[in-house]
Design brief:
seven-stranded antiparallel sheet, mainly beta, 3-methyladenine DNA Glycosylase, Chain A, DNA-binding
Length: about 170
DNA sequence: AGTGCGATTGACT
DNA sequence: GTCAATCGCACTA
């Protein structure tokens, strides 16, 4: 859920990637730095960083304080505030509004100012419960990384058209 | 102080 | 399918 001056935006998370303890692909792997310190907060805090100088990535810290791990939120099925998301993204097609981590952040106007925010409390950005536990969840290798590339730590809703990535990865 | 490089995207052949 | 854009930051010296 995202609370903006223009209104409330929300969506269903349909795709994530885990960056676990001791994971060479994770930003926390080489210890705490000014950029990644939010990964070391109590689980449920936002870690936002800029990738390729172009796109912001939203992560949720996933361990107890001082450990350093998180989950990248890769795609959303837009639910509320779709007209505002279209303005934020400059595209009309609902499927393209938040399909991919950079697009998701753009649709929700997420940037480094939200870094470190507690996502378990209602605020400018927070997490709710909307999922249907009976929907089938697939897993695959993670997208766009080089180290620890073989681990099956990407998760997505099999039947959702709002999932990113090559179709060959979305069949399991 | 200088350098190299992405947890991507959008435009183009 | 290929490829450039773009910049904060981690690393080296």
């Amino acid at each position: 859920m995202r609370d903006l001056p223009h209104g409330i935006l929300s969506g269903l998370i349909v795709e994530t990637e885990a960056y676990v303890i001791g994971d060479a692909a994770g930003h926390a792997y080489r210890g705490m730095t000014p950029r990644n310190r939010s990964l070391f907060l109590e689980r449920g805090h936002a870690y936002v960083y800029l990738a390729y100088g172009i796109s912001y990535m939203l992560n949720v810290s996933s361990e107890t304080p001082g450990i350093g791990a998180g989950v990248l939120i890769r795609a959303l099925e837009p639910l509320e505030g779709i007209p505002i998301m279209k303005l934020n993204r400059g595209v009309e097609r609902v499927r393209d509004l938040a399909r991919g981590p950079g697009r998701l952040a753009a649709a929700l106007r997420i940037d480094r100012r939200l870094d470190g925010l507690d996502l378990c409390r209602k605020g400018p950005l927070w997490l709710g419960r909307r999922g249907d536990p009976s929907r089938k969840i697939g897993r695959s290798i993670r997208i766009g990384i080089t180290r620890d590339a073989d681990r099956l730590l990407r998760f997505y809703l099999c039947d959702s058209p709002f999932v990113s990535g090559p179709r060959s990865l979305n069949m399991r």
